[in-house]
Amino acid sequence: MIKGISVTLWQTTQTGTDAFNRPVLAETPVQVDDVLVTPVTDEEIAETLNLTGRRAVYQMAIPKGDAHDWENRRVSFFGRDFRVIGIPTEGIEENIPLRWNKKVKVETYG
After folding, report:
1. Which string of b and e fits 72-99 if b means at least 16 CB within 10 Å?
2. DSSP 8-state code for residue 41
3. Are 90 and 102 in contact (CB under 8 A)?
4. 73 within 8 A of 11, measured Cβ to Cβ
5. What digits encode the pLDDT tens for the residues 52-100?
6. Which candidate in 18, 35, 48, 82 could, as Cys together with 56 as Cys, close a disulfide (CB 3.0–4.6 Å)?
7. Contacts of 92 (CB under 8 A, 6+ apart)
8. Alpha carbon distance 19, 85 (integer Å)
């Protein structure tokens, strides 16, 4: 049976504005369970680097029903921080046989 791991997704919320009227943001950790994590292939690394200028290291499969915002967010797993590259790709839940329907690629962060 396939089983995912728990990852920490860092959600940002606006806590106010600074002296120049720009938003001040704070990050809040949220645990997301049953996330599949796999290394990307050499071809995927090259493709992502050519398209975005960013070097993907892992791909994550997000469980069905997850409503969190994953776009360009920081995530933590394996004792390290990563940054989501772009927006998630998502399939139709009813047409996908397993428990995951979104995919994101992440790069090393920090």
Report:
1. ebbbebeeeebbbbeebeeeeeeeeeeb
2. P
3. yes
4. yes
5. 888 999 999 999 999 999 999 999 999 999 999 989 999 998 999 899 9
6. 48
7. 101
8. 31
The Cα 20–Cα 98 span in angstroms is 48
The number of angstroms, rounded, from the C-alpha of 4 to the middle of its chain's C-alpha atoms is: 14
**At 1, is the pLDDT very low, low, confident or very high (cuts 50, 70, 90)?**
confident
* Partners of residue 11 on adjacent β-strands: 28
**Spatial distance between the Cα atoms of 56 and 21, rounded to a whole number of angstroms:** 34
Q: The tokens of 76 are what?
A: 């933590």
CA dist., res. 26 & res. 44, Å (int): 32
Cβ neighbour number for residue 52 with a 10 Å cutoff? 13
Give pLDDT tens digits for 23-45.
999 999 999 999 999 999 999 88
